[in-house]
């Protein structure tokens, strides 16, 4: 008897559709091997291979007879009721996931069950017989029946819609999907039901994420606050080198570096200004208070507010700064000898600029802290920090203005007695021209002057040098007009541009007048408004001095 395994055939082959059977037709010499990818069954080692030698004629006739007999048996097997032929399954997972759509009626559920049965049958055919046993139809029917009953129950719950959950696993990982059938028969994907336990965990995760975000913001704010304290400590050390190094050595009578005669008699004090007072306040009070703010950040705003009066020491220091620079430049060799003896890296000029740099940097540090405070939602700390930032904007501006005033030379009198500096900047001026004398104005070329408007006087100065990254110009006094003996007239129009005239009404200086032109319309309006305001204040003060009762009645009437 001929063994069918010798030719790659097996009794299971009769269950395959016809298109899967590749038998030889018209070739009686040999049978080609059956493809493994279709039935996934290993053939016998006795299968004929193309490179083997041709068998004797007797064996070829026996093989041909066996093939004819096998084909006849296959034709008889096709008469048995079998599932309709299907296309070869390329992806088992995609075929099974097609069952995830939930039926909207019992008929759809039955159709889905048939599809499941076919898919499982083909899956069993696709895998090797050695790796998987034949599918148990009883188990499949029981599984489908249970799902159909669940669908019927959901359809009859009176809600008008049904939700099918986990009918068939969507993939090989055992995960399930769910759909919702609406009244129209359409299905939409629905999220799986979430248990109260899961909802609580999800809410807790969201709260945890939010808390982590706030903690991250607060960590950044603490970092900015530590930077403020760290740089303050380094700044105090720099001031210590000036006070305990340079100043102590200059005042040391037994110093090996003799002080020049030109610096004796207290002139060395003009080099350092009030830097000793600044150093002592930062060392004994401000630094220690900032260190406490590391534990209590909400106290930072109130600390800056309490320190506003002390911070105005920088205005005095900056006012003396131009004089200090001039003296240091004249005695550079002496101060370099002191630097070498003290073993300092920076020269004295670079160290004396430290207070100016520090007062300018406070605003940037506070701005960073305020940003993180707003992001963290600490609204109760915001007003104090904003007020602190305002202080750190006003004080540096005043200090910078006073440095420009300190560069004013040859002014007869004390600058400190001129009152508050209201405004200063360059203007293009024509001297000796009045608003009625247009010929005089047109005959002269406007000259750029630096004008300082104080509460008591307005000072005109010539500009010497140009402002660069490392140097600033000096100002040489030219003239001044007393504010309480001055008139203002706006001459701006389409023809004249941004002009205004300032004339002295002092009998001793009646010929003194200037026609000034601002670089931009905005600056023109700023100068006009500031001068108008100070003139009004001066007139009110004069009225109060001459007739206080009448002035008081006028105020009462206006109110």
TrEMBL record:
Gene3D superfamilies named in the record: Dbl homology (DH) domain, Pleckstrin-homology domain (PH domain)/Phosphotyrosine-binding domain (PTB)
Region called Disordered, residue ranges: 18-113
Location relative to the cell: Cytoplasm
Any one GO biological process: axon guidance
GO molecular function ontology, one term from the record: guanyl-nucleotide exchange factor activity
Keywords on record: Cytoplasm, Guanine-nucleotide releasing factor
Compositionally biased intervals (Polar residues): 91-113
Gene Ontology CC annotation, any one: extrinsic component of membrane
Domain of life: Eukaryota
InterPro entries per UniProt: DBL_dom_sf, DH_dom, GDS_CDC24_CS, PH-like_dom_sf, PH_domain, RhoGEF_Guanine_NuclExch_SF, SOS1_NGEF_PH
Protein name stated in the entry: DH domain-containing protein
Biological source species: Anopheles stephensi
Species lineage: Eukaryota, Metazoa, Ecdysozoa, Arthropoda, Hexapoda
């Amino acid at each position: 008897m001929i063994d069918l395994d010798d030719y790659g055939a097996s009794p299971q082959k009769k269950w395959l559709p016809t298109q899967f059977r590749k038998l030889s037709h018209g070739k009686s010499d040999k049978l080609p091997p059956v493809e493994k990818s279709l039935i996934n069954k290993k053939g016998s080692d006795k299968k004929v291979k193309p490179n083997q030698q041709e068998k004797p004629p007797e064996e070829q006739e026996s093989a041909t007879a066996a093939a004819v007999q096998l084909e006849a048996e296959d034709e008889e097997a096709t008469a048995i009721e079998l599932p309709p032929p299907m296309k070869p399954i390329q992806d088992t997972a995609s075929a099974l996931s097609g069952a995830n759509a939930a039926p909207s009626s019992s008929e759809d559920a039955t159709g889905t069950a048939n599809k499941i049965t076919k898919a499982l049958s083909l899956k069993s055919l696709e895998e090797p017989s050695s790796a998987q046993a034949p599918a148990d139809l009883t188990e499949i029917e029981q599984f489908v029946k249970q799902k159909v009953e669940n669908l019927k129950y959901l359809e009859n719950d009176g809600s008008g819609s049904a939700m099918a959950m986990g009918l068939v696993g969507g993939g090989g990982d055992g995960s399930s999907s769910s759909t919702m059938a609406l009244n129209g028969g359409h299905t939409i994907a629905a999220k799986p039901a979430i248990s109260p336990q899961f909802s609580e965990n999800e809410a807790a995760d969201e709260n945890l994420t939010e808390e982590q975000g706030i903690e991250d913001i607060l960590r950044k704010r603490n970092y900015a606050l530590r930077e403020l304290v760290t740089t303050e400590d380094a700044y105090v050390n720099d001031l210590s080198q000036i006070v305990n190094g340079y100043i102590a050595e200059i005042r040391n009578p037994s110093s090996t570096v003799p002080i020049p005669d030109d610096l004796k008699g207290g002139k060395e004090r003009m080099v350092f200004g009030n830097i000793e007072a600044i150093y002592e306040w930062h060392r004994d009070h401000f630094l220690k208070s900032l260190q406490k703010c590391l534990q209590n950040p909400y106290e930072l705003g109130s600390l800056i507010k309490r320190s506003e009066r002390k911070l105005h020491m920088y205005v005095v220091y900056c006012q003396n700064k131009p004089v200090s620079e001039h003296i240091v430049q004249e005695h550079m060799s002496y101060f370099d000898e002191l630097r070498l003896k003290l073993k300092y890296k920076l020269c004295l000029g670079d160290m004396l600029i430290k207070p100016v740099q520090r007062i300018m940097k406070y605003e940037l540090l506070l701005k960073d802290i305020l940003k993180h405070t707003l992001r963290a939602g600490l609204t109760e700390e915001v007003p104090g920090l904003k007020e602190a930032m305002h202080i750190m904007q006003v004080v540096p501006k005043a200090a910078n203005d006073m440095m420009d005033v300190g560069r004013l030379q040859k002014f007869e009198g004390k600058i400190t007695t001129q009152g508050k500096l209201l405004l200063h900047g360059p203007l293009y001026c024509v001297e000796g021209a009045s608003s009625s004398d247009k010929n005089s104005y047109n005959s002269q070329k406007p000259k750029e002057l630096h004008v300082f408007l104080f509460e008591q006087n307005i000072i005109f100065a010539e500009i010497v040098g140009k402002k660069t990254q490392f140097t600033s110009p000096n100002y040489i006094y030219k003239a001044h007009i007393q504010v309480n003996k001055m008139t203002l007239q706006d001459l701006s129009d389409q023809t004249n541009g941004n002009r205004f005239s300032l004339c002295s009404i002092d009998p001793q200086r009646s010929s003194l007048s200037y026609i000034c032109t601002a670089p931009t319309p905005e600056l023109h309006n700023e100068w006009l408004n500031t001068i108008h305001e100070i003139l009004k204040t001066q007139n009110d003060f004069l009225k109060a001095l001459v007739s206080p009762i009448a002035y008081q009645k006028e105020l009462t009437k206006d109110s």
